[in-house]
Amino acid sequence: MSQACLMPFTLDGRSIAGCGLSEIDAYTGTYASLGFEQADAALPMKRLVAIIAVLLSLAALHVSRPVTLPVVAGLMIAALAWPLLHHLERRIPSWAALLVTILAVTSVVAALLATISWSATTIVRDLQAQTDRIAALQFRVGAVTEQFGITLPQIGGGQSSGAAGSGSANGLAKSVAGALFAVFGYLALSIGFAALALAERREAAGKIRKRFPGGPGDTVIEISSKVTTAARQYFRAKSLTSVISGVMTGVIALAFGLKFALIWALFAFLLEYVPTIGSLLAVVPPVLYALVQFNGFGKPLGLLAALTVGQLYLGNYIDPRLEGRLLSVSPLVVLFSIVFWGWLWGPAGALLGVPITVAITIVTRHFAETRWIWALLSASADEHDQG
For 297-308, what is the mean pLDDT? Predict the structure, then answer.
């Protein structure tokens, strides 16, 4: 029997750490007398309660999306805008610095929405004027798909084709306008929450220290600081890769003579903020438009190949070197977080999914009870050994 097993059993379990299973079984009476059997019997109930609590929390997040999504987005905006506010507060009064910061954020968001609206309107109007080419393209594609037993629905011909195409384009324009209006409402709430978070950041730190004096309060503030820093680093890295993706897409579009190269570059820039699947989705709009603009499939296939190779190079070579170990989560977890938060909160959830997951890993790493969650989410076993 090992030396550790000669020590009395204690409730913290340290004295049985060095014992083998057979040695513990030899002392079953002592083991049970200390209440371990009761503790083991209570574990399934505790796990069931934890699972139910998680499911109820997720259901609450889904139902309360009109409120919880702007709150989370507002906190993200506050984290991104804090360096600007901190810089301005050194030169002008705090209230003026806050006002300038909020105006700057609002201006950037308004400019972005106006650019997206202009881009969508431009594409829709152009497609409205090319309904005959779209119908001809559908005929050519339908001839190919019929060889495989697939029949595409027909748009129609002649004037009715143009009317149908016009109605479809108008419907698309209305859908885009409605989506932009909904996004504007969410962003307005998010900016409001961001302004409140920035205005009360110092008071919040004081309240935390007062409510949790000593170590716990400092731990909460430390975790919050790490989460906001990680969010800034993440969006800084994604902004750089988004610029590279946009420039690359625009240059390739110009090289192939594709119209609206600037718009395709903008779409690629925005979609790159969604990890993994965003770069793949960025290939689709310009290739679909190339099918309408060019006769035949040669140039569209060449454009597809060029954009795909460029995005694969960006995703497999440039992204890892710019982001490095910033995310500290496995690629599978990244993809799952996009799909999961996208299902929970829609497109905004897909955008915020990875930063939220990174925040969860930071929080769970700080507590022994939740470190197993961090171990499941993080990228490598080496980090677990260091943690």
Answer: 92
Q: Work out the number of other CB atoms within 10 angstroms of the CB of residue 34.
A: 14
| Separation in Å, CA 241 to CA 272, 274, 319 | 7, 11, 7
Cα distances (Å, whole numbers) of residue 78 to 68, 118, 241, 299: 15, 28, 22, 45
Token pair for 154: 């027909």
Contact 34, 9 (CB under 8 A): yes
> pLDDT-derived band of residue 324, with 50, 70 and 90 as boundaries?
low
pLDDT in tens, 4-34: 444 444 444 444 444 544 444 444 444 444 4
Residue 378 three-state SS:
strand
C-alpha angle with apex 296: 295 to 302, nearest 5 degrees?
Answer: 110
Residue 24 pLDDT: 42
pLDDT tens-place string over residues 171-190: 555 666 666 677 778 888 89
Which letter does DSSP use for residue 60 in this model? H
Distance CA 231, CA 225 (A): 10
Helix (H) or strand (E) holding 253: helix 215-255
User: What are the sequence ranges of the domains in the chain?
Assistant: 1-50, 68-199
- Number of helices followed by number of strands (H, E) in the chain: 18, 0
pLDDT of residue 194: 92
346: helix, strand or coil: coil
Which tokens sit at 294? 């060019």
Q: How far apart are CA 387 and CA 379, in angstroms?
A: 13
Beta strands in the chain (DSSP E): none
Task: Label residue 260 left, alpha or beta by phi (over 0 means left) and psi (-120 to 50 means alpha).
Answer: left
DSSP 4-49: GGGSPP-TTSGGGTT--HHHHHHTHHHHHHTTHHHHHHHHHHHHHH
| Res 358 pLDDT > 70 | yes
**Among residues 214, 265, 263, which one has the least CA distance to residue 244?**
265
What is residue 329's three-state secondary structure? strand
Residue type, 152: L
Reported pTM: 0.72
Average pLDDT of every residue of the chain: 77
